[in-house]
């Protein structure tokens, strides 16, 4: 069972024309939750939370008056695949937007090609950028979790657990403190101007 606060996090709704054509989703609308992104990553952490928060904010800015169109959004990553948490962030962004590198769906009749929409080592001033294929409009997003407070004993508890010196009580204390910080990122600090910093670029 996942933490209760997962259910309070807003879902992401996107329109996927391919899903509609193939009858995979009613009216082509697909919803993604934070819990589903956690399942994809295999864990809930500040990186997963921050990526989800960047998608929430970025897609809203990119499509202010309409539903985001899955499969028609480029995802640009500033980092190199394999470094740090770049892969985790890219996997979540790919899951939600449908963007892939060369491993995705090749399309039908020249439409719905999801390949080459996910790029690494992009020349952007942020962690990731979302770009509309149809208009070229882009939102670049930077994530700074350092301003969200954490229990000062988490590092000590983690070291004990990793070195097999922890006990049941320490494990529970660490787990609670860890998810409490994730909750802060997604709730209390979700609209803090210093946590996710978006920059919108219009091509018009």
How is the secondary structure organized here?
Elements: E1 12-15, H1 17-21, E2 29-32, H2 34-41, H3 46-62, E3 73-77, H4 86-97, E4 118-119, E5 128-132, E6 138-143, H5 154-162, H6 168-186, E7 196-201
Parallel strand pairs: 3-4
Antiparallel strand pairs: 1-2, 3-5, 5-6, 6-7
Helix pairs in contact: 3-4, 3-6, 5-6
Structural description of this entry:
The protein has 204 residues and is α+β, with helices and mostly antiparallel strands. It folds into two domains: 11-147 and 194-201, 2-Layer Sandwich (60s Ribosomal Protein L30, Chain: A), CATH 3.30.1330; 149-188. The chain is 34% helix and 16% strand. The chain is built from six helices and seven strands. The strands form two sheets. A five-stranded mixed sheet has the order 4-3-5-6-7, covered by helices on one side. Strands 1-2 form a two-stranded antiparallel sheet. A hairpin with a 5-residue loop joins strand 5 and strand 6 (138-143). It is globular and about 60 Å long.
CATH class of the largest domain: Alpha Beta
- Overall number of structural domains: 2
* Alpha-beta classification: alpha+beta
Question: How would you sum up the major sheet?
Answer: 5 strands, mixed
- Average pLDDT confidence is 96
Question: Which spans of ≥5 residues are poorly predicted at pLDDT below 50?
Answer: none
User: What CATH architecture of the largest domain do you see?
Assistant: 2-Layer Sandwich
E-strand count: 7
The percent of residues in helical segments reads: 25-40%
Give me the CATH fold name of the largest domain.
60s Ribosomal Protein L30, Chain: A
Radius of gyration: 18 Å
């Amino acid at each position: 069972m996942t933490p209760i606060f997962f259910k309070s996090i807003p879902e992401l709704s996107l329109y996927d024309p391919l899903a509609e054509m193939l009858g995979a989703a009613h009216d082509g609308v697909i919803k993604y939750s934070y819990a589903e992104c956690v399942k994809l990553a295999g864990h809930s952490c500040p990186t997963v939370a921050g990526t989800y928060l960047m998608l929430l904010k970025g897609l809203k800015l990119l499509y202010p008056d309409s539903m985001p169109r899955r499969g028609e959004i480029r995802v640009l990553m500033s980092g190199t695949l394999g470094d740090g948490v770049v892969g985790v962030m890219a996997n979540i962004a790919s899951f939600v937007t449908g963007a892939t590198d060369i491993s995705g769906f090749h399309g039908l009749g020249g439409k719905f090609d999801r390949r080459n929409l996910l790029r690494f080592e992009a020349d952007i001033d942020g962690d990731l950028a979302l770009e509309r294929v149809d208009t070229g409009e882009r939102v670049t997003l930077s994530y700074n979790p350092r301003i969200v407070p954490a229990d000062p004993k988490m590092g000590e508890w983690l070291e004990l657990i990793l070195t097999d010196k922890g006990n049941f009580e320490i494990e529970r204390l660490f787990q609670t403190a860890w998810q409490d910080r994730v909750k802060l990122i997604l709730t209390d600090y979700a609209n803090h101007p210093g946590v996710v910093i978006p920059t919108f670029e219009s091509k018009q």
